[in-house]
Structure formats: C-alpha cells, structure tokens
Please model this.
Amino acid sequence: MTVKSIKMSRPQDPHRPFFPFGNPFRMMSPKGSRLSPKLVSLLADFEETLAERLRKLMPKDKDDILNLSWMRLAMESLCETHNVIKDLITELELPVSDWDEKWIDVYLDISVNLLDICIAFSSVLTKVSQGHLLLQCVLHTLDSSSPTKFGRARSSLDNWREHISSKNPRVESCRSILDNLVASLDLPKVKNSAKGKVLMRAMYGVKVVTVFVCSIFAAAFSGSAKNLLELNVSDTLPWAPAFSALQANVNAEVRNILSSGRATVLNELEAVDGSVKKLYEVIQNEVDTVEEELLQKSVLDLGKKADNLSQGLDHLTKAVDGFFKIVLSGRDALLCNLRATGTVPDIRVGRNVEPVRR
Model:
C-alpha cells in the first residue's frame, strides 16, 4: 500500500513520508497480528464516530468559517475526540505496562506540543478580551457630558486599534510547534500486538484532526497562511472522505480571507473593527456639531458588536481551556501509571516539559 505524503502549505517545502518506522495501515494484511472481531468492531466504531464529527464541522456557509462559534465547535469536537481515545484505550484492555516505549514517546511528545499551542491560543484570546475594556471605556466616555469626550474617545479607539494589531510573541512560535506535530504523524512500527495496531491507527486519526484544527487556529490568530497545513491521508481510511472535504472547504476560505487584506481575520473582530471606523468618523468633529441620532446609532452598533465578540471569546476560551485540561490530565495519568509500574522510559520523552504558566 502506498501512503501519500504530507506537506506544508508552502510549495517549496519538501514532501516527507508519513511512516519511517513502518506503515500502520498494513494492520489488516495477512502478515503479523490478526485482528479479532471485537477489535475490528472497536476500531470501526471509533473511526465512524470520527467521520461523523468531521461531517458536523463542515460549515453550512463560508461566513461560518473563522467565526468564533465555528471555532468553538471545532475545539469542542477535538475535546470529545481526545476523550474517546481514552475510552478506547480502556476498552482495548491495554495497560500502560504493555505499551511499547516508542508509543509512550509519541504520546508524551505530542502532549508537550499541544500544551504549548494551547497556551499560545489562550494568550491571543486573552489579548483580544483585554481590548474589550478599551471599547467599554469608549462607550462610557461618550455617555458623559464632558466637552472633551470625543477627544478622549478617539484616543481610546486608537489604543484599541494599536492593541489589536500588535504582535503576539507566543503566536510566532506556532509554526515550530506545528512542525513538531506534523513530524508526530510518523508512527512507530507495531509488532506482534493486535491491540497496539488498533491503538496506533486510532491515534493517527486523532492526530490528523488535531493538527488540522490547530493549523486553522494558528493561521487565524497569526493572520498568516504559513501556518495553514495541507494534510493528505490515505483514502482507505473510513473517515478520509469527510476529512478531505472539510479540509478543502475550510482551507480554501481561510486563504481567501487571509489574502483579502482585511484588518482582522476573525469575523466578530472584523465586525467590531468596522463599527470602530464608523464611530471614529462620527466623532471627528466638535461635540456640538455632531448629529445626536447618528452618534447614538454608532454607539449602539459598537456596543452590540463588542458584546457579541466578548461572549464569543468567553465561549472559545473555555473550549481551549477544556482541551488544555484534557491533554494535561491524560499526560499526568500516563506518567503516574508509568511510575506505578516502574516502566518510566528515558527522561528524554519529557525533554520539552516545563512547569506550565498560563
């Protein structure tokens, strides 16, 4: 079986093979460990559930892409998928003591990178949320009777624009994290373990979807197409058609948005930016020369869109935090089990681990 390659969005990047350690899709071949009916059923159920989640993520309209509701849905779907892989491990009755050291390496290395990228995403959401305070200051100022309120409001709007457009150092690290996650798609060879083959194939599906979602978030938060990935998966996988259709649809629209010259990428943030520009034009003149009805209309519009942005950010932040906790708890549980069984591998598997500061 020939497995397709994986590439980054930039055409000059070389193709890299999926599996330098062996091809996990040979698990159904006559050679090696054969799968029992129970294992076949467990894997089939897992992969059909994965396919269904991918189908549910297909946007109904292009305007749904890169809005906070869709991003929250994607992150919540990722949380569910990672929880299901934990359930599968339990159903496989595959204790950690039976895991190959390479499987443990893969799991621990991935978890480190996922924790890092969650922290980067959370920092972006926190930054945008902090900008909401500046908008509230604008609205409060314009509600006063001060003769200097327009000048102070314009100053706060300028501060908001500067705050939103400023670079975030954590987001700049997303590219290297994504590179590490892409490399993690190479799976170790599984020998003489039917349960291990099921686990590795299921983990492969989880990792592909995780890398895809993280790449969309990274591209959106950085405003750069360099973080957008194109993942090619074998069409023999039950969930491959749903994944390929979703990726093609979402990636194409994200590229269109990134190349449109919009000041901001997130739909709700773009809506607020538009309201800010309109209000700024209204309050350019002296207080006593501005039409009150036009001013109130602009203020109400900004308030409504700012609240919509704030609520969306709150929901998405909770989803990202939930994913962070799932990854962290899974990592901690694995390490605790390894210590309990005395099978802790070489310390290098935690080479990037530092105390998490959010």
Observations:
- The chain has ten helices and two strands.
- The CA atoms of residues 87 and 324 lie 18 Å apart.
- The chain has a mean pLDDT of 84.
